[in-house]
Design a protein that fits this description.
The chain has helices spanning 12-38, 51-58, 66-71, 81-92, 98-102, 105-113, 130-134, 145-170, 178-204, 209-235, 237-242, 246-255, 264-296. It is mainly α and 297 residues long. It has 3 domains: 1-37 and 50-60 and 142-242, no CATH class; 61-137, no CATH class; 256-297. The relative contact order is 0.09.
Length: 297
């Protein structure tokens, strides 16, 4: 029995409120993806997100310096090739302070870099301070632990709030069976934690770069599913879920239950569900008491 007002039955002002929020965060999500393409996606100097981009961003390009990696990657478009080569050559020579001005590097830095990298900028080095610039002429070891800490807590607080409200709106949907609705609402938080954890793991070893992409993809898929379902139920319920293709999807989801005849996909699903239930029961009976006793000791 439905104990809430479905999305399609809410008053128009409430629908407008929900739609305004969903559209705003939806646009924000797309802009965030574009921003990733222009930052992490350029870490290897080529447009488009790849495993190398993830590795260079978090683990670092251990074959070069931070300045060189950035100038050949995400900062490639910020200065002409000749000026970038001039800075890189100075860095490869050991970045001596005696040659900083005479080599012309200081003028290039002031013209091309200090506009953003200044004392008023938050979270990035101040290139007006030579010591901070000098620190980046060492081997590129990717993101620092301090920057990962800062970005992690911002993402954990900010993105969890976004998914809380998106999930709250989606909770009023009625075309998705309750078990799958619960999974869809909980998935973003699982993938968010996996995404943050994967940054730290990739910082330690580049193999975990795959986990960054998988976690980010899972988070995006769950967001898109809740977003699309909520919008369609509010404004296009009849043409999509009664007269259109949505009714076939709904019927397929409802068929994935473990009652009555089992065959094909349903049989596989029920077997997996029974296996999960068995493992959960064993964990509660034996695994959790053992772990709890271990912590008590």
């Amino acid at each position: 029995m439905i104990k809430y007002t479905p999305l399609k039955d809410h008053d128009t002002p409430v629908k407008v409120l929900f739609t305004g929020y969903l559209c705003t965060v939806g646009i924000g999500y797309v802009v965030a993806l574009i921003q990733i393409l222009f930052t992490h996606g350029m870490a290897d100097g080529k447009f488009g997100l790849s495993i190398d981009d993830i590795v260079y961003s978090y683990y670092g390009n251990r074959s070069g310096t931070v300045v060189e990696t950035k100038l050949n990657g995400s900062m490639k478009g910020m200065a002409p090739e000749a000026e970038r080569f001039q800075i890189i050559q100075w860095v490869r020579d050991g970045a001596p302070i005696n040659d900083y001005q005479s080599s012309g590097v200081e003028k290039i830095i002031e013209t091309r870099c200090v506009t953003c990298h200044n004392k008023d900028a938050s979270g990035i080095p101040n290139f007006a301070d030579f010591e901070q610039l000098k620190a980046l002429t060492t081997q590129d070891e990717g993101a620092t632990f301090s920057s990962l800490t800062r970005v992690s807590h911002i993402h954990l607080f900010g993105i969890s709030f976004i998914f809380m409200f998106v999930g709250l709106i989606f909770a009023f949907s009625e075309t998705t069976p309750r078990p799958y609705k619960s999974v869809a609402i909980g998935m973003p938080y699982v993938f968010l934690l996996a995404d943050i954890l994967s940054w730290w793991l990739t910082k330690i070893h580049p193999t975990f770069a795959w986990l960054v992409i998988l976690a980010g993809t899972g988070m995006g898929v769950s967001f898109a599913f809740m977003w699309v379902t909520s919008i369609l139920e509010m404004w296009l319920f009849r043409p999509v879920f009664i007269e259109g293709p949505g009714m076939k999807v709904q019927a397929w989801l409802e068929s994935l239950t473990c009652g009555g005849e089992e065959s094909g996909v349903n049989k596989t699903w029920c077997a997996a569900k029974r296996g999960f239930t068995f493992l959960k029961d064993k964990w509660l009976q034996h695994g959790w008491p053992w772990l709890k006793g271990l912590f008590n000791k």
